[in-house]
Amino acid sequence: MLKLFSGTSNPVLSEKVAQELKIKLSKVEVTRFDNSEIRVRIEEDVKHDTCVIVQSSSNPTNSNLMELFLMADALRRQEARKVIAMIPYFGYARQDIQHRDGECVSSNVIIRFLESIGIHKVYTFNLHDEATEGVFDIPFKNLSAFSALGDAIHHYLDQKNTEVSPKNIAIVSPDQGGIERARKFGNVLFGHNDFNLAVTEKKRDLENKHQSTALSLYGDVKDKVAIIVDDVATSGSTLINSAHFALDQGAKSVIAAIVHRDFAPGTAEKIQKSNIEAFFTTDSIALQKGSEFEKMREVSISTEIGNALNIFSK
């Protein structure tokens, strides 16, 4: 039997997934003590069941990760047959290489925790670098939110009487490292790979967090709707700088397609005040109070999660 458990990071998404699977969320007690420790207690019989934990490792990242680890351990102690981790947003994924001498490779550390705690399989969405998949020694599946985002943007442009074709639209990567990601989104949006792909040259400040400088934009965006594609937005600086360059080079308008809204304080306000026309994102990370803004269009990934987990309910 399949049983679905929700961590506390994104209970609304977990409830949507339960509806997709036509099951009820299973009961779990999560207690947070005043000294910041967490206690998890499974309140159902899970012996010989396949148990799925839905938990994004978003802010507060460390607390949400520890909750996931403890929940997995509790399920294993109750003799669950398999424990599946559905991690819509995989925190620490951007810390996947050693940028400077003396740094840790944080994503590898998190992966080793997941493996050692006895998790059978891990799912996530649009991992920052697909090469990280090779670090896992347990089954791993990198799902994509591009189809859901592409459908939503297609509908938005249809309502504005803008034909969704390469003659009207340019796909933009906000940095060199995201070119393949942007290309994949374009393939989903147009159904082929014959389209304009532009890229912003960016220099990141490794000594200061959330600091980068956009230098230029290469590619044809003139008289086109520029769709900037990225896996995550935190400070919003990369996104806003790319939008500025696209408009400066003659783009008619700019739309953002960002999978994960891992916002720092003030990011929502910055994007709302920017020249970006619409900001499309998913519910992989729960919307925090104060992060709502008019330009944001939320797209749910609950259907994609439900489709991925259906194999365990048969």
TrEMBL record:
- Tell me its EC number(s), please: 2.7.6.1
The residues covered by the Phosphoribosyltransferase domain are 144-271
Output the Gene Ontology terms for molecular function: ATP binding; kinase activity; magnesium ion binding; ribose phosphate diphosphokinase activity
SMART domains per record: Pribosyltran_N
User: Could you tell me the keywords of this UniProt record?
Assistant: ATP-binding, Kinase, Magnesium, Metal-binding, Nucleotide biosynthesis, Nucleotide-binding, Transferase
Fetch the InterPro entries from UniProt: Pribosyltran_N, PRTase-like, PRTase_dom, Rib-P_diPkinase
Domain Ribose-phosphate pyrophosphokinase N-terminal intervals: 2-118
* Catalytic function, reaction form: D-ribose 5-phosphate + ATP = 5-phospho-alpha-D-ribose 1-diphosphate + AMP + H(+)
Query: GO biological process: any one?
Result: purine nucleotide biosynthetic process
In Pfam terms, one family for this protein is Pribosyltran_N
Q: Supply one GO CC term from the record.
A: cytoplasm
What the record says about family reads:
Belongs to the ribose-phosphate pyrophosphokinase family.
Against NCBIfam families, the record matches this protein to: ribP_PPkin
**Name listed for the protein in its UniProt record:** ribose-phosphate diphosphokinase
